[in-house]
Amino acid sequence: MIILLLSHYGTIVITFKILTKFFSNFARATAYQCMPIMKDLNDFFSVKDRYIPQLSVDCVIFGFHDQQLKVLLLKLKNLDVWALPGGYVEQIEGIDEAARRILEERTGLTDIYLEQFRVFGAAHRPTKEFIQKIMEVHRPEAKNDLWVLQRFVSIGYYALVDFSKVTPMPDFLSESCEWFEVKQLPKLAFDHSEITQKALETLRLMLDYKLVGFNLLAETFTMIELQSLYETILETSFRRNNFQRKMLSMNILERVEKLYTGAANKAPYLYRFKSK
Amino acid sequence: MIILLLSHYGTIVITFKILTKFFSNFARATAYQCMPIMKDLNDFFSVKDRYIPQLSVDCVIFGFHDQQLKVLLLKLKNLDVWALPGGYVEQIEGIDEAARRILEERTGLTDIYLEQFRVFGAAHRPTKEFIQKIMEVHRPEAKNDLWVLQRFVSIGYYALVDFSKVTPMPDFLSESCEWFEVKQLPKLAFDHSEITQKALETLRLMLDYKLVGFNLLAETFTMIELQSLYETILETSFRRNNFQRKMLSMNILERVEKLYTGAANKAPYLYRFKSK
DNA sequence: GCAAAAGTGTTAATCGTACACCCATGC
DNA sequence: GCATGGGTGTACGATTAACACTTTTGC
């Protein structure tokens, strides 16, 4: 664990921050369980008119941890498959807002970097089969003409989040919510493998076009962290000095203070993304 | 008009081709008017169940002619606005197929370069107002709860077509179908200005990433034509020789024969996109 | 002082750009 | 032959990659 030492009293400040974060996350998690919308299956099966029919949103939430690019997945209750966090679009909300709502429910984060990247709308997407399986688990008596059993067109979003700030929270259909390395995904429901794959391709493309990588790191980060992020996602390697020069030449980073890790070497500088 | 001379008898061959093309387009145009689906308003208002509700497709069809990038637009009957070709997604077809169907109906072309680029799904897209106006023109007695009056989420596609091969054909809601220069668009209905703008941005981005420009030209083209295409879309200018080197270095063009225009200068080579 | 890791500086190679020149064509 | 426009070759500058070196830190 890295500790940021501003002064000798710094450690205490940081530890305090971690504790506050933990408790606020806890409070948030319980708060969500009381939310009036789609909190359980009864809502899920009765609120058809609340949503735009046959349209869903799937989110590929990327995080970076332990030198690995990760994706947040939900384990469907009593089924041996995982799925991307997703949901439906309310009649009164925009599609981006819907994605944000879903993201906040699963991660507890607001103000997330979010982009749509593709619509998945093939005539024979394998949605019906899975929804049917899910229903067998939860509501074997449900009718066959239920709205969720129709064909669905899904808008794919990808999100870049600060791994350390996320408190994964499962929804009412799933029993757990965990990070998986993109290179080692479990068996995914629906066409979520394809969706994840496309999201990753888009992320790679955007990375050198738009410099969005910072969103995967904490507010301040070392150059090495940034470099290893780029190297992991793009599956290449750069020279330390050249990478640094390239990043700094873009004039979007500002150097903050030094990071003392306790290691017997020169302390690296921390950088922050210039917001303006 | 450029004439391709393979031999002294070439002119006749070419002229013949032009004539055949003209007649086949004419035949196709009349054929479409007999198509069973959505051929008129009666169909339009009665076939609700055929389509996925609240979901539409809008196509930004790009063409290149006279050194200008053009977009194909429809003039709505009795209204002073133009609109992008669009339509709805049938329950039995994929979204890409829907876009292709719409494209074929308006241009007569199959096998078109087509990509989705963004979904427009803000909660308050100005669709209702325009559909209401359209209905006042066509069906003033129609009920207010008609399916087309709901909120719609629209998937934006952009298409790159060979201008010379297109025979613009209006649909039953419009009185004409014409090309407009992207720099001088008329008043557009709905949020179609925004959609067109985003399509153009995506096209510019894709142009140097994926080399899709060829789809806007005929099968064979001169290097100068390709260059002027790039210059027009990207709004820059390149050096003749450097542009050529860059293009040829990518190893995706093959040189075919020379093009004799009758001008008193060296005949340029024609190039073709290597399909494999 | 030394090892480890970060930071800086300097050279070599590559790429893009600008310029000059050569070639084919019709009058 | 000459004007016109297309094609090719080369030199220059900028950007990028590779290498060497210096600085900071804890033991």
The unreliable regions of chain A are 1-38
Give the largest chain-chain interface (CB within 8 Å). Answer: A-B, 24 and 24 residues
- Separation, N- and C-terminal Cα atoms of chain A: 31 Å
What is the class of the largest domain in chain A in the CATH system? Alpha Beta
Query: For the residues shown, what is the average pLDDT of chain A?
Result: 81
Shape category of chain A: elongated
CATH architecture of the largest domain in chain A: Alpha-Beta Complex
C-alpha Rg of chain A (nearest Å):
21 Å
Total domain modules of chain A: 2
Beta-strand percent range of chain A: 25-35%
Report the major sheet of chain A: 7 strands, mixed
Secondary structure: helix percent of chain A: 25-40%
Describe this structure in words.
Two copies of one chain form a homodimer. Chain A is of the alpha+beta class and about 280 residues long. The first copy, chain A, folds into two domains: about 40-205, Nucleoside Triphosphate Pyrophosphohydrolase; about 220-275, no CATH class. The first copy, chain A, is about 35% helix and about 25% strand. The first copy, chain A, is built from seven helices and ten strands. In chain A, the strands form two sheets. In chain A, strands 1, 2, 3, 4, 5, 6 and 7 form a seven-stranded mixed beta sheet that branches. Chain A has a three-stranded antiparallel beta sheet with strand order 8-10-9. The two termini of chain A are about 30 Å apart. The model of chain A is unreliable at about 1-40 (pLDDT under 50). Chains A and B meet through strand 1, helix 3 and strand 5 of A and strand 1, helix 3 and strand 5 of B. The structure holds a DNA duplex (27 and 27 nucleotides).
